[in-house]
Specification:
By secondary structure, this protein is an all-alpha fold. The model has no long low-confidence stretch (mean pLDDT 81). The longest helix is centred in the N-terminal third of the chain and has 37 residues. It is built from five helices and no strands. It is extended, with a radius of gyration of 26 Å. Helices cover 68% and strands 0% of the residues. Helix 1 crosses helix 2. InterPro entries: TMEM242. Belongs to the TMEM242 family. This is Transmembrane protein 242. It is a multi-pass membrane protein.
């Protein structure tokens, strides 16, 4: 007698398994991108503050006579607009290419693009490709560089 949750379908062939895996992958990439963006922006702000603290504090002030907004607000607004334009532009371009191709799913789109674009020939590697340590890799690179000179 089977217990609750047991099925005759093998584990790798569940229909929702691939979809769930894609969702998890998308969430991972989105979170990695967001963290990278925040980290890079934070490091840049920190470097600017470290270079000239007095000017940085003047730029972050909320009100200064003759200046309608602070440098920090201006930078954040510019970053927001640039992000919107770049993501929107790439998304629009991708949508236009997708619709012009007439594909209904990713497999059809891949097939159509591969038939249009030229194939890139694969070259056989003439050198080594497996190394046990970083030191072995660097020694190999030094030897190869010496041969070419």
């Amino acid at each position: 007698m089977s217990e609750i949750g047991d099925t005759d379908i093998p584990l790798g062939q569940e229909p929702n398994d691939k979809r769930l895996q894609k969702i998890k992958g998308g969430i991972f990439l989105a979170s990695l991108t967001g963290l990278s963006l925040l980290g890079g922006f934070g490091l840049t702000i920190g470097m600017a503050k470290k270079q000239d603290p007095s000017m940085f504090s003047k730029g972050m002030a909320t009100y200064q006579p003759g200046i309608s907004e602070s440098g920090g607000h201006l930078a954040l607004r510019a970053l927001g607009r640039a992000s919107l334009y770049s993501v929107g532009g790439v998304g629009l371009f991708s949508l236009i290419v997708w619709k012009l191709s007439g594909a209904h799913n990713m497999q059809e789109f891949t097939t159509k693009v591969q038939s249009i674009l030229p194939k890139i020939p694969k070259r056989e590697s003439t050198g080594r490709s497996e190394f046990k340590t970083i030191r072995e890799l660097f020694e190999y690179l030094i030897q190869e560089d010496g041969r070419k000179k």
